[in-house]
Design goal:
It contains 17 helices and 13 strands. It has about 450 residues and is α/β, with parallel strands linked by helices. The strands form 3 sheets. The protein has a 7-stranded mixed β-sheet with strand order 2-8-7-6-5-3-4, sandwiched between helices. The chain has a 4-stranded antiparallel β-sheet with strand order 9-10-13-12. A two-stranded parallel sheet has the order 1-11. Strand 9 and strand 10 form a beta hairpin. About 50% of the residues are buried. The structure holds pyridoxal-5'-phosphate. The site of pyridoxal-5'-phosphate has 14 residues, from helix 5.
Length: about 450
Amino acid sequence: MNYQTLKNQDPEIYELIKKEEKRQKEGLEMIPSESYASSAVLEAIGSIFNDKYAENYPGKRYYGGCVNVDELERLCQKRAKKVFGAEDYHVNVQPYSGSPANLAVYLGLLEFGDTIMAMRLDHGGHLTHGSPVSLSGRAFRFVHYGVDPQTEQLDYDAIAKMAKEHKPKIILSGFTAYPRLIDFQKIHEIAKEVDAISMADTSHISGLIIGGVHPSPFPFTDVVTTTTHKTLRGPRAAMIFCKKELREQIDRAVFPGMQGGPHEHAIAGIAVALEEAMAAEFKNWAKQVVSNAKALADSLIENGLRLISGGTDNHLMLIDLRPFGPGRGIFIEKALEAAGISTNKSPIPNDPSPPYYSSGIRLGTPSLTHRGMKESDMAQIGKWIAIIVKEFAKTELPGDPKKRAASVKDFVGRLEKHSLVQEVKKEVVEFASQFTIPGID
Ligand SMILES: Cc1ncc(COP(=O)(O)O)c(C=O)c1O
């Protein structure tokens, strides 16, 4: 994208875009829910479809002039079903993002107050999986399962036992911070035993499913949601797949239940990303994402760090900072950022600290892999991360919660002059600058 019109018309915004391009080029983006959209996807999102109102669904819109958006939306649906092998499903491609998609499923299939079973937030669930601060947790009754305390992995027998006890209407799997594979078939069977709807939120792993490196929730799971901007490498949006008998409830929940006019420019971007995902290049990328994650996990462990569940089978991993003390995630996130490495602090199973001061670091390989990095690069990146973690993981938070924000600010202020951070940053910038980024000329 050359942004020439924007440069002339609004140099302030243009400069911010250029600064962000520089930050991304010179740094290592390791937030596992991020990826790069291609130039073709970005062009589609930036297209004239942005300007079109098209409430309701193809063939029955509340606005005129929908001939092209109807064709676009139908094509997007066709591609979505094809790429996931979900020909027997209905797919709604209108959700604005992952959170409204999940809420639309609950709204469409349940009454307020009904019971949903899902993963605890601190064990890897998402806010929309029943957190009390989310509308999901306020409008529905959630009961939460967690990971096994020893293996830190899913315990399907415990989930089955809980399902029998609570008789939920929906059993939800699919997570935001879980480094292992999910057996969707088992979850579906557990749901069927108690007459529940099985729902898989595949937001993090949908690209891995397409690439054949994670088990698929199709063709048995009743409802499957996914964001389109994580491992699907598309625009910020989402999709809901459902068995055909649930179509009407899901469609009515998305529009008019949750949303107004669909973002047709985003739907154009999803369609482009789905076509890209059918190519061999995408499948090879997905395989490499997992190989790179395993190589990175090995490097972190060799360099003295503990990972939740001892490693990874997918695109992400969680560093357990508790061996250094509780609540250190914020310092490590900031120190890594100062060294050019973007990750995020994250709650970990049985975290003694609240989410903002959590004791884990979540990181992954989708973006680095898209830049062409391989296992040997992960070994080096693991070393840099371990150097920073070990240097700062003993930093303590003040016991008084009112002093915490100031302590973090003071910590960040000192990083600019910290020689070790600056040394690592110099190496990171030199290394990262050799690799191009999709979507940046
Ligand atoms: C598993 C899962 N579901 C849903 C979402 C929500 O997606 P969004 O941020 O697009 O609302 C996320 C986002 O991180 C997620 O990880």
